[in-house]
């Protein structure tokens, strides 16, 4: 009995679980569930379907080539039972699983660090841009405010003056 990976999402399929589909050309597909089988029947490509391992590997989100994957490799050479070999293998499985999970964790941490650095760079760029525009705006506002302050009293005067002048003119005309 083997733990086979799902043909679509690469999830491990334990004995007694999943669906096996043998195509006309004798190629065997194993699916972890109806979701993967339906997606396969829809002729979807695992690499283009976001939730599959194939997609995650292609996007650099998973460990790709690692020596710990060698343990699970299919070996077509039959091995004669050997108690010592079995014992060392069982111990090796635990050790290798530990090493792989540590490496996966490290990979994730590294990935997140890169993502955070990228995000921070973007944020600082945005902040710098915002700061630059903010610096420009107060200057403009200050200039505009000063202009307005300078403008306002003369404006009123200007507005009132012509009227007064007109009135004066009118008065002058009437006086004449
Ligand atoms: Zn699946």
TrEMBL record:
Q: What is its main location?
A: nucleus
Query: What family is reported?
Result: Belongs to the eukaryotic ribosomal protein eL24 family.
Q: Please state every residue range assigned to the domain named TRASH.
A: 6-44
Keywords from UniProt, A to Z, are: Nucleus, Ribonucleoprotein, Ribosomal protein, Ribosome biogenesis
Which GO molecular function annotation, any one, does this entry have? structural constituent of ribosome
Give start-end positions of Basic and acidic residues composition bias: 165-176
The molecule here is called Ribosomal protein L24e-related
Chain segments carrying region Disordered: 152-176
Q: Which InterPro entries match?
A: L24e/L24_sf, Ribosomal_eL24, Ribosomal_eL24-rel_arc, Ribosomal_eL24-rel_N, Ribosomal_eL24_CS, TRASH_dom
> What biological-process GO terms show up in the record?
ribosomal large subunit biogenesis
Q: SMART domains under this entry?
A: TRASH
Identify the Gene3D superfamilies for this entry. Answer: Ribosomal protein L24e
List the Pfam families hit by this protein, alphabetically: Ribosomal_L24e (PF01246)
């Amino acid at each position: 009995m083997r733990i086979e990976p799902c043909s679509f999402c690469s999830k491990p399929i334990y004995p007694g679980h999943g669906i096996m589909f043998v195509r006309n050309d004798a190629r065997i597909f194993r699916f972890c569930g109806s979701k993967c089988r339906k997606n396969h029947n829809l002729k979807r490509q695992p690499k283009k379907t976001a939730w599959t391992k194939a997609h995650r590997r292609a996007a650099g989100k998973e460990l790709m080539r690692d020596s710990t994957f060698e343990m699970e490799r299919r070996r077509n050479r039959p091995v004669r039972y050997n108690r010592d070999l079995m014992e060392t293998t069982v111990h090796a499985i635990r050790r290798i699983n530990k090493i792989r999970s540590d490496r996966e964790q490290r990979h994730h941490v590294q990935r997140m660090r890169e993502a955070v650095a990228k995000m921070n760079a973007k944020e600082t760029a945005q902040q710098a841009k915002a700061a630059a525009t903010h610096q420009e705006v107060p200057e403009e506002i200050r200039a505009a405010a000063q202009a307005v302050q300078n403008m306002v009293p003369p404006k009123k005067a200007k507005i009132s003056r012509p009227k007064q002048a007109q009135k004066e003119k009118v008065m002058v005309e009437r006086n004449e």
